[in-house]
Amino acid sequence: MVLLLCLLIVQAIGALVGGIALVLSPSGEIMKMSSSMLKGCPFDTFLIPGIILLVVLGIFPAFIAWALIARPYWRWPDAVNVYRGIHWAWTFSLYLGIMLAIWIFVEIMFIPFDILQTIFGMVGMAIIIATLLPGNMAYFGWIRKNNLNQQI
Questions:
Q1: Number of domains making up the chain
Q2: Can you give the pLDDT of all 152 residues of the chain as single tens digits?
Q3: Which of 72, 88, 130, 138 could form an S-S bond across to 4 if both were Cys, CB 3.0 to 4.6 Å?
Q4: 28 lies in a domain?
Q5: Which range marks the domain in which residue 85 is found?
């Protein structure tokens, strides 16, 4: 679980810094990005991508990291938890990894190559892999002690 938490924190910090910078400077000046990078993109400025980065890929992984530690038993997150019998925070970490992979894929389609795309693409894949590690699955309730082979 430590690896997964570290990956979520790295993702949260990176997206919070980038998201705040893009929201504060929608022209991309703070990040040394030109708005000409958005040619062919559905956005004229970096404001909407910055808000998405800040909220979905920054605040959300910080929330998930907290939830993985605290493991609160709330009913409302289970409404979108497709894996019954496992804590919703585990499922949300899987969702986040998938969202990050999709974000990077779409970004690569519209924005010229940047090393950060590769780094955070790898972070997204690592979040998915770390979430699916048997130890994490067992810790959050997927694998029961009496029927290890039935659940996998």
A1: 1
A2: 999 999 999 999 999 999 999 999 999 999 988 888 888 888 999 999 999 999 999 999 999 999 999 999 898 998 999 988 889 999 999 999 999 999 999 988 888 788 989 999 999 999 999 999 999 988 888 655 434 444 44
A3: 130
A4: yes
A5: 2-145
